[in-house]
Design goal:
Number of strands of chain B: 8
Order of helices and strands of chain B: HHEHEEEEEEE
Structural class of chain A: alpha+beta
Largest interface: A-B, 56 and 66 residues
Number of strands of chain A: 8
Structural class of chain B: alpha+beta
Shape of chain A: extended
Largest sheet of chain A: 4 strands, antiparallel
Number of domains of chain B: 2
Number of helices of chain B: 3
Oligomer: heterodimer
Strand order of the largest sheet of chain B: 2-1-8-7
Helix content of chain A: 40-55%
Strand order of the largest sheet of chain A: 5-6-7-8
Shape of chain B: globular
Strand content of chain B: 35-45%
Amino acid sequence: MKTPSEENHDLIRWLDDEMTVGERRAFEANWQSDPELAAEAESMRWLSERIKAHLPAEIPVPHADFFNSQIQARIAQMEVDDARERAETAASTSSRFLWLRLPWLAGAAAAALAIVGLVWTQSGSSGCSTILSTYTPNPSMKAQVIEHVDAVATVLLLEGLDPIPAEKKVVGFHVHHAESDAEVATTTLFDENGAVLAVVALNAQGQPQMLK
Amino acid sequence: MTTTFQRQNIFCKSGLWRRLCLSCVIWHASFCLAQQPTPAVVRQPATDGKVWGALIYATTDADKLTGSAEQMPTTPQDLPARLAKVFAPYTHFEIIGQHLQDVFREYESWVVPSRDLFLKIDSKGPAEDGGMNLHLQVWREQQVVAKADAILRAGSPLFIGGPKWRGGQLLFVLELRKK
């Protein structure tokens, strides 16, 4: 049996139900003249249905934090590579424009570069907080990031959170300072008078528990 | 011999020997303490900065406010107006709890303005132009609801839209403060 490849891309689209009604009809009409394709399609469908029946639709990514950080590192590396490539291209192009090295042009170019640099610096150091990546362990939840220019704030909207029952009292703390003990993995929260408000301690599963 | 033995026995029985030893120990201890130039200094953990976190109740109905005594801070400037721009249609914003926290360099920091919604922060070092690279975790009691990698910069707070509550919504504000 052939394995799906670029040559039978249509077969994959048919299996994944990605075809339009017209495409699907045309594809299935080909089976009349190509019994080998018909047999392969039927075989692949049989296999696909069994795999779908035995595997969950969604599998959480193991060590998602590490996965995310690795992707970010890779993206950063690609950006550095792209920038280097662009710089090399620009350098080779500049050799064709030796006439630009005339003395009177050097001053003008320096001034222009200074202006461009100033504009670039101002736009680059806009001073806005940035969210690089998000992850929600619960697949029914979604995190949406908005950079709100008017409010000069970065917004992380958590959609799909269960509401807190109205009758539940949400009590706040006014934490003046906190002391952490790395050895026993606890953080003690104090008010302005030095009284203990709560102690955050991690349980065996690494979940925080509020003591007191 | 008998006299000597009796004397030694009296010396031991009367407790004089014990008293002498105890005096020596106290004298030695006080001498040692006097020799120490300074008391042992408790090492403070290294920090990368400070963050201010607040849990805020947003509502359209002033009558539903909880009556919290917490005051709006001077920074972030115009916080209620900025929140209103983002979280329309809410018009009333009330701080339920707030927490000013050092961000530790080598281990996690917790920003806990409330038991119900709080943050765990891991510093990933300074960012350009005075910002701070962070890994954030948003916790709702014992469940982490979201994780994010972020660059936090002073003057540009992070607003987190949390769960609905009492016809309104709970919001979390996190701002980088000067060290």
